[in-house]
Amino acid sequence: MSGPSNRSVYGRGIRDALPFVLVVGPFAFLFAVVSAEAGLNLLEIFSFSFIVVAGASQLAALSVLQDNGTALLAIFAGLAVNMRMAMYSASLTPWLGSLPPLRRMFAAYLMIDQTYALSITRYEQSPEWSLRTRLAYYLGTATTIMPVWYVTTTVGAVTGQSVPESLALDFAMPIAFLALIGPALRTAAHAAAALVSVVASLLLAGLPSGSGLLIAALLAMMTGAQVERWMERRRGTAA
Amino acid sequence: MIGGPVLWAVIAALGVGTFLIRYSFLGLIGDRKMPEWVLRHLRYTPVAVLPGLVAPLVLWPAATEGETDPARLIAALVALGAGWLGRSAVWAMVAGALALYAGLWLEGAAGW
């Protein structure tokens, strides 16, 4: 016997993801309402969210089409917004890469900001977890979030009603992610990476389709790795 | 009016392309060992992507048309600080939400 059961870890994933319902729900609503106003029908809106599962890129593609841009440009804009997920994929590979191909594909479909951020945080806290336990946690977070994504998309498309602005749920996403970042700032290297990420993304905010974020993230990863090496070297000379 | 085959082509292409981005490293590398320098960089992915993702939303919220909002800015700092000090994401979210609503209520009361 070693570590918690997969069932209890699955349940923990479900529970940990609950606050993110407030992030994903309003975002699905927003996309559904904007697309309904743009003239999309229920089947189109639902398929869009079900197939792509990436709200920001869906909104980007939709706004290109609304501005009479070509389909190619809409696809390009949407994909550019999603390039950060290649980093998520690389970052999850040491933890989930040993899964059989079909399960890796399923994990890829479920890979969104929320499932990624929750899972990688737990994996780093519990490196002793087995492969199956890691998958159980990942699927737990998705079990909470994906149905909310599908259902609120549908409800938003049918009712055309957005969440009232007075609830300020626009800010649920920053708060939820910042709450995850806090505990992740374990070393000076992590803090330096986060700082570079913030400064660079603000300076590069004018670049199109999330490319500023990509550059900022790469710079931040290099910063983290470099500071880690410095700290190791300093410890080496001190010893 | 948007719709018809063009829309479906965009949905399909964006769906396939996004899946390939998500599957990329997970699919191609799988359980092969990555070199130490790559792993060293990947360790910082969460703290490299997520702060940059939210920083513009914190400083220039869409809800206030990009105007920096003291209530949102303070709530963001509270969520980050509480998570850092308390090491618990859930309590940090609660603290951030409370700070946000308290700040918005104060702004409303002060008539800002």
Question: Secondary structure elements and their pairing?
Answer:
The complex is a heterodimer of chains A (239) and B (112).
Chain A: H1 6-16, H2 21-37, H3 42-52, H4 55-66, H5 71-82, H6 84-96, H7 101-109, H8 113-125, H9 131-159, H10 172-184, H11 188-203, H12 211-238
Helix pairs in contact in A: 1-9, 2-3, 2-4, 2-9, 3-9, 4-5, 6-8, 8-9, 11-12
Chain B: H1 4-28, H2 36-42, H3 45-59, H4 70-86, H5 89-110
Helix pairs in contact in B: 4-5
Task: Put the structure in a nutshell.
Chain A has 239 residues and is an all-alpha fold.
pLDDT < 50 stretches of chain B: none
The counted number of beta strands of chain B is: 0
- The averaged pLDDT of chain A comes out at 92
| Radius of gyration of chain A, whole Å | 19 Å
* Strand coverage percent of chain B: under 5%
Which class do the helix and strand fractions of chain A yield? mainly alpha
InterPro entries (chain B): Brnchd-chn_aa_trnsp_AzlD
Pfam families (chain B): AzlD (PF05437)
Protein name (chain B): AzlD domain-containing protein
Transmembrane segments (chain B): 6-29, 41-61, 73-106
Give an overview of the whole structure.
The complex is a heterodimer of chains A (239) and B (112). With 239 residues, chain A is mainly alpha-helical. Chain A folds into 2 domains: 6-167, no CATH class; 185-239. Chain A contains 12 helices and no strands. Chain A has helices spanning 6-16, 21-37, 42-52, 55-66, 71-82, 84-96, 101-109, 113-125, 131-159, 172-184, 188-203, 211-238. Chain B has 2 domains: 1-32; 44-110, no CATH class. Chain B starts with a helix and ends with a helix. Chain B has 112 residues and is an all-alpha fold. At the A-B interface, α3, α4, α5, α6 and α7 of A face α1, α2, α3, α4 and α5 of B.
